[in-house]
Amino acid sequence: MRANNSFVPGGKRAGGAEYTRGADQTSGGKYVGGTGPVLPPCAYIPEGMPCMRQRGRFRQPPFHFCGQPFQVQRQPFQYQGQSFQVQRQPFQYLGLLHQYQRQPSSYIRFMNAVPGSQPVDIYANSSLIARNLPYKGFTEYMQVFPGIYNMTVFAAGTTGPVLLDAAVEIPVRSINTVALTGIPPALSIRPFFETVVQVPQGRLYLRFANLVPDSPEMDLALSNGTELFNNVSFGMVTNYLSVPAGTYIFYVKQSNTDNTLLYVPNMHLQEGRFCTIYTVGRMDGSVPLQVLIPLDGNSYIQVG
Predict the structure, then answer these.
(1) 239-251 pLDDT, tens digit each
(2) CA distances in angstroms from 122 to 116, 125, 126, 149, 163, listed in the order given
(3) Parallel, antiparallel, or unpaired: how do β-strands 241-244 and 290-293 relate?
(4) Is residue 53 classed exposed, middle or buried when 0-12, 13-18 and 19+ CB atoms within 10 A define those classes?
(5) What are 106-146's pLDDT values in tens digits?
(6) What is the reported pTM?
(7) I need a labelling partner for 271 at 20 to 30 A (CA). Which of 38, 45, 160, 167 fits?
(8) Is the peptide bond before 76 cis (omega within 30 degrees of 0)?
(9) Which residues have a Cβ under 8 Å from the Cβ of 99 and sit 6 or more positions away?
(10) Residue 238, Cα to own-chain centre: how many angstroms?
(11) Which residues contact 77 (CB under 8 A, 6 or more apart)?
C-alpha cells in the first residue's frame, strides 16, 4: 500500500483543505484520497478469503488462490456419480463457500489524528498497509474484503513497542475512513462509515467530526449564526447534512457557549460531493486547533 503523504505547505490541490485557528486564509491545501483503490497484498486478506489481486483471473484456467494454483476444467466431470460444471459452481476453501464473481468488497483509508504525533506504521493482520503516516495525513482508499481486521500501530520504521492493538470491523459494501485518535498511551482507532446516497442537483453532503482528545462538545455554525451540527463530543462524527453548493464561512464553537474555537473562512464546497470537516489538535494550544476537509470516498467510489 502506498500512503498518500501529499501534505505540501503552501500548495493547494483540488479535493481538500486545511485551516488553522485564527487564520484568515488557507494555511495549505491538500488532496486527500486517491482516484481509485489500491489493491492489498494477499497477506492481510482475512483468512479464508480469496486474494483480490487474483480476482480477475478466476475465469481463466489455471488460476491462483493466494499463491496456490488450481486448474479449472471447462468440461463437466463426474464425482460419486454426479455431474458438475466447475466454472458455474461455487466451491469451498477452508470450509467457506464463495461465489468469487459476486464476492462483495469494501474500501478503507486511514488518517492520523493523534495531535503532534510522529509518523506511524499501521499493520492489518500482521501485514504493513500504511507506512510513515504523519499527523493529519490520510492514505489512499484501499479495496478490501469485509470482515474483522486486527490493527496494530507502531512508530514509523519500528516494530515495537506497540502503540495500539485493536480490532476493526469493516462492513460489507462499505466505504470507511479509519481514524487513529487520542493521546498516547490512550490511543484508539475509529472507523467512520461513509454513506452512499444520491446527491440532489446543486447540493452536497457535509458532516462534522470532533477528533480533539481533551475538548468539550463542539458545534459547527455558519456566519449568520445557523447551527449545522451541535453537541458533538470527542470521537464522534455526525450524519451527513445536505447543503447548497457555494462558498461558506464556518465557526467551530464550544457547545452551549459563545466561545468560538475556530474561524474557517471562504470554504468553497462543490456540488455532487461528500465532505467531512475533521477538527484536530489540542485545546491547550500545544498543538494548534485546525480543521481538515477532505473529499470523502463516497464522492467517487462505487460499491455494490
Answers:
(1) 999 999 999 999 9
(2) 17, 10, 9, 12, 10
(3) unpaired
(4) middle
(5) 999 999 999 999 999 999 999 999 999 999 999 999 999 99
(6) 0.69
(7) 38
(8) no
(9) 90
(10) 15
(11) 83, 84, 86
